[in-house]
Design goal:
Layout (H helix, E strand, L loop, with lengths): L2 H25 L6 H17 L23 E3 L9 E2 L2 H14 L6 E7 L2 E8 L2 E7 L5 E3 L2 H4 L15 E8 L2 H13 L8 H9 L4 H6 L3 E7 L10 H11 L6 E4 L2 H14 L7 E8 L2 H7 L9 E5 L4 E13 L5 E12 L2 E7 L3 H7 L6 E7 L3 E7 L25 E3 L4 E3 L6 H12 L11 H9 L14 H5 L6 H14 L4 H7 L7 H10 L3 H6 L2 H5 L6 H12 L1 H12 L19 E5 L7 H10 L3 E2 L9 E4 L5 H8 L4 E3 L1 H8 L1
Parallel strand pairs: 2-11, 19-20, 19-21, 21-22
Antiparallel strand pairs: 1-6, 3-9, 3-10, 4-5, 4-7, 7-8, 10-11, 12-13, 12-15, 13-14, 15-16, 17-18
Helix pairs in contact: 1-2, 12-13, 16-17
The structure holds zinc ion.
């Protein structure tokens, strides 16, 4: 590689690693698989080693990712929590064993432990009592999660070991509990967790221990930090010792036969499917502490241990049909409907095929058996066809030439990789546009989801976005599955949306390339929609972070007569397209709130947003300085505490919504 190319590559990798690190540790999200992430990190490490001139002091390879969120209290760990060197193939595992054997000859037993796909924790006990619990944090300081940890019933609060000890392991969520939580979230219209690890990580950081308790978290222990006990001189004995203290211990195997140990990789790659929790690899450790000490550490990880990572899981299933879905911009996307198949923790029945070229690339035919993987154990992806199982006269899958909904001839772009229906009145596009406007990430009108919009369209009660503001609620109440209560709720939600933040309103309009982030950038320069509508391409392009494509798309959108009419009509209905006025009136300015318990179907974040959007302040603790406690169903200790202060006003969800309307 040429040197400047190397430099580019290193910089790109570094920013990618940092991005995914932050997503993973701070937001409990993943866009790529762990396998891919670890590979990326290792790649970066290798390049930095080869080209030390491009190494930066702040490279993410120098420190493990931090899980600490900005609003948390932190605790310094007594001893650092290292991460482990990783192996991505059996050869790399073999290399580990030969390297270790070079340093130490003779009989040397190893432990082979299941590597849990959970969330690392550190439990500190002194005088036999649990004093505090933290996350791994950045390995040096962790986030205080003591109260949440205490909700896990199997974690002992008292142990018979009296000197200070740091016990380390992983918080996990069992698969059946994960399924239960996701089903519940789905029926509440909440976003489902992508995998048990994200659910565990999200749960352990909730601000309300009562909600953590309801998640039924579990854990397993595999090591210690600070620890002194002369009878324990190996990892194997340590695990037994911890088990005897009352901890749940990670499943492990113990042997001095390297071939047997390596064989475990194959055994557990299959065996992990039978477990009720997620395992993403195996950890091999030299067992004797004296030999561990001799082999030593690098600055990042011990040289006497390695983590072998399993590859993504594959499954094979039958393709039932391909649906062609029309999105709000008219783009037609093929989606494979599959015979439901269990794959890495969830049941998969659909997978996107992206575009016509992807169908061609796969050579997909009707009734084919397809091979699926989950990239990152999140999104199922079809990677190939099992030709041995194809029936003789299977027909090819043909991308439609006309819109499957309105029959308009499709327009093909980018060498056929994209197909569009350009009929602005296409019912599918109308549905998606309204759905986009009302969705949580944009204007956020509760109760106006896909099925309700479809019902309103079918009954000719709406035709376009602006019609949302003139729904006949009496008629709505008389529709099947609806009623007076749901009509009232919808009406309230529609009313509230009129003073939504300008950025969210703009994002809801469906301007190409203008999602919520871009919309917010636009509102930094334009405080109302009229000035934005007058902006030229050059004006917009001059804004930092706005590219040419986006600038053109905005201008194009506002030069379309129908769109201008839509804005006019929305304004007439009372929608406030003005940054200052749409700060929702500031009705709660100067007031502080603590939210506790369940308020209708609102998530905590939605309620916090509502408070802040109206100028109020959200607090997490009940104190004499607090103005309001917003208490819903199953309000617990916070309600009790608030009652002790006669200065705090305790209000219901209804009182709250009355305040901001
Ligand atoms: Zn169409």
């Amino acid at each position: 590689m040429k040197v400047d190319k190397v430099k580019n590559k290193i910089e790109k990798l570094r920013s990618e690693v940092k991005k995914h690190n932050d997503l993973y540790y701070k937001k409990s999200q993943s866009e790529i698989s762990d396998f891919e992430f670890d590979r990326m990190l290792k790649n970066l490490e290798e390049l930095e080693e080869q080209y030390p001139q491009f190494k930066e002091s702040a490279s993410p390879t120098d420190f493990v990712g931090s899980d600490i969120s900005s609003d948390s209290s932190i605790i310094t760990l007594n001893t650092p929590m290292y991460s482990l060197d990783k192996a991505f193939s059996m050869e790399e595992v073999e290399n580990f064993f030969s390297k270790v054997k070079e340093k130490e000859t003779g009989n040397m037993p190893f432990t082979c432990e299941l590597k849990l796909d959970g969330f690392s924790v550190n439990l500190y006990y002194d005088n036999g009592e649990l004093i505090y619990a933290t996350t791994r944090g950045d390995g040096i300081v962790g986030e205080d999660i003591t109260e949440n940890i205490k909700t896990i019933p199997s974690i002992p609060l008292k142990i018979s070991h009296k000197t200070p000890i740091e016990v380390r392991g992983e918080i996990i969520l069992n698969i059946d509990e994960f399924d239960r939580i996701n089903k519940e979230r789905e029926s509440n219209g909440e976003k489902v967790f992508a995998n048990p690890r994200n659910a565990a990580a999200g749960s352990i950081k909730l601000k309300d221990p009562a909600r953590v308790k309801a998640r039924k978290l579990d854990y397993k222990i595999y090591s210690v930090g600070l620890f002194e006990e002369s009878s324990v001189d190996s990892q194997y004995k340590l695990l037994e010792y911890l088990r005897n203290l009352g901890f749940k211990i990670v499943e492990h195997y113990y042997s001095d036969n390297v071939a047997d140990l390596i064989e475990q990789c194959k055994i557990w790659d299959k065996g992990r499917d039978d477990l009720n929790y997620m395992v993403d690899g195996l950890v091999f450790k030299v067992s004797h502490f004296s030999i561990q000490d001799k082999i030593g550490h690098t600055s990042k990880f011990p040289k006497w241990a390695v983590a072998y990572k399993f590859k993504a899981k594959e499954a094979e299933t039958k393709l039932l049909s391909v649906d062609f879905q029309v999105g709000r911009t008219g783009a037609v996307t093929p989606v494979a409907k599959l015979n439901p198949v269990y794959l890495a923790g969830t049941t998969v029945s659909r997978a996107t095929l992206h575009n016509a070229n992807e169908i061609k690339r796969l050579g997909l035919k009707e009734g084919d058996y397809v091979r699926l993987i989950k990239s990152g154990e999140i999104v199922p992806k079809i990677i190939g066809v099992n030709l041995d199982r194809r029936s003789e006269n299977a027909k090819s899958i043909i991308f439609p030439e006309s819109c499957p909904v309105c029959s308009t001839q499709l327009i093909s772009l980018d060498n056929g990789s994209k197909s569009y229906c350009d009929n602005l009145n296409c019912p599918a596009q109308i549905l998606r546009r309204i759905e986009h406007f009302a969705s949580r990430d944009t204007v956020g009108i509760r109760g106006l989801g896909e099925s309700v919009i479809q019902q309103l369209l079918d009954n000719n009660m709406i035709e376009k976005i602006e019609d949302i503001y003139s729904i006949d609620y009496e008629k709505f109440a008389s529709l099947p599955h609806q009623g007076k209560r749901s009509a009232e709720k919808l009406q309230k939600a529609v009313e509230v949306s009129k003073t939504q933040k300008l950025g969210k309103l703009i994002a809801g309009l469906g301007i190409r390339f203008v999602g919520l982030n871009t919309a917010k950038i636009l509102t930094d320069s334009y405080s109302d929609i009229d000035s934005l509508m007058k902006a030229t391409s050059a004006d917009l392009f001059a804004i930092d972070k706005i590219g040419e494509k986006t600038a053109d798309a905005v201008v194009e959108f506002f030069s379309n007569k129908e769109n201008i009419l839509m804005i006019k009509s929305l304004k007439k209905s009372g929608v406030v397209f003005n940054k200052i006025e749409s700060k929702m009136s500031g009705k709660l300015t100067g007031m502080s709130f603590v939210v506790t318990g369940k308020i209708e179907n609102y998530t905590r974040k939605e309620l916090n947003d509502l408070i802040e959007d109206n100028g109020g302040k959200v607090s997490s603790t009940v104190s004499s300085k607090l103005d309001y406690l917003l208490a819903g169903e199953n309000a617990g200790s916070k309600l009790e505490k608030a009652r002790k202060f006669n200065t705090i006003k305790i209000i219901s969800g209804q009182d709250f919504f009355d305040k901001i309307r």
